[in-house]
Structures are given as C-alpha cells and as structure tokens.
Amino acid sequence: MQDYVVIDLEMTGLNAKTDHILEVGAVRVRNHQAVDKFGAILCQNVKIPEKVTELTGITEAMVQGGMEKEEAMRQFFEFIGEDIIVGQNVIFDYGFLKQWSVNHNMPLERNAVDTLKLARKFLPKEQKKDLESLCACFGVKRENAHRAFDDAYETWQVYEALRERYEEESAGDFMPKPLLYKAKKQTPATARQIKYLREYAAHYQIKLPENFPEMTRSEASRLTDRLIATYGKMP
C-alpha cells in the first residue's frame, strides 16, 4: 500500500457519544511520500477539561476562535476522500468520525491500517506502543505532541518505518481492513428540554454550560438529572 491518508483527532474526552472533537489533522500520502496536509481547530463552545489543555495545549480561547465546525468537518472529509486510512489506534478516532457522520447523515465506511496493531504484532512485548514511544523507537522527531496534524505526520513516518521492516515477511498484516463501529444518531435537545433548563437555572440561579442549547436530547436529559439530584425538583 503506497497511497493513503493518515488521520488524527484531538477531543475533549474518550466517549464519542458525549465528548467533542477539538482538532482534526491529516496527511495525504502518495507513493509513500507525504504530498498534502490538512489541519483545523473546530469552533466549539464547550468546556475543555484542564487535563486536555495540559496534554494538547488547546485552550478554550483557541476553539472559540476556530473554524466553524460543520465547515471544518466538511473539508476534513473531503480531504480524506475515498482513501484508505492509517492511524495510531485508528478505531478510536474513527469512532468520533462515525458518530459525526451519523449525526449529519453522511455515509462513512472505510478500510484502514492501524500502526498500534502493527507495533503490537512485530515489536517486542517490553517496547511501549504509544506514539511517543514508537517515534523514539524509529528515530522520528516528535514535535507538538498531541496536536492533530503533528501526530498524523509522525504516524505516517512510524507506519513507513514498520512497513519497510516487516511488510515483506508478513504482507497480510499490512492489508487494509474494514473499520467496524456502530453509531446511533443523536437527536438535538427538544425545545421543551431547553425551556425547562432555562427556567430551572433561573429559579435556582445556576449558570448552565454555555453550549447547552446545542446539546443532544440525551445530554440534556443527563444534565437535568444531575441538577435535580443536586438541587431538587423545581416547584
């Protein structure tokens, strides 16, 4: 395989159903060489956990000034096109892409190669398999760790290093395989839910998350349950 696209995403957390994509990055590869790139921070009106900012350097100010999220994702999917995907633990990122595509009525079925699976197959058990450790193992310069484009660019180099060393002896492991992830469409919060949350917040003088009007129905329900558990039902 000599033509493919490497992807990486940065998110607010680990759950594709409840967390948010903050940044996307990709590298287009032709004949084993990186020939084009894409990167964007998505405009998200969300609270970013401190540990995420510490890990990635992405701040709330950065995402508030990012590209409009629907446009960023449209361009990202357009960049990927119909290419085979390569990624480090690629099913994790793909889960977020799949959830987005289902929510926005966009078809998404892809084949992929996972550098994490390749590393587990070919490298010694004692060798750590995270991206930073793999970069060190193969002499790949690590820059701007946990930023989407940089991670994608370094994953490309790790993949090519693995391919050069091990593909000849085990070509089947380097064949793209279907990514299987089931995602259920999330519907927006109802007008009734939004109205109730506004009235509840006003009654108890509570500050709601700034993005609460953009919540899904299930997110609004969970927020309502948490508020009632804390403050009680509104009279």
TrEMBL record:
Residues 3-168 form the Exonuclease domain. InterPro entries: DnaQ, Ribonucl_H, RNaseH-like_sf, RNaseH_sf. One of its GO terms (cellular component) is cytosol. Keywords: Exonuclease, Hydrolase, Nuclease. It comes from Roseburia intestinalis. It comes from the Bacteria. GO terms for biological process: DNA replication proofreading. GO terms for molecular function: 3'-5' exonuclease activity; DNA binding; DNA-directed DNA polymerase activity. It holds the Pfam family RNase_T. This is 3'-5' exonuclease.
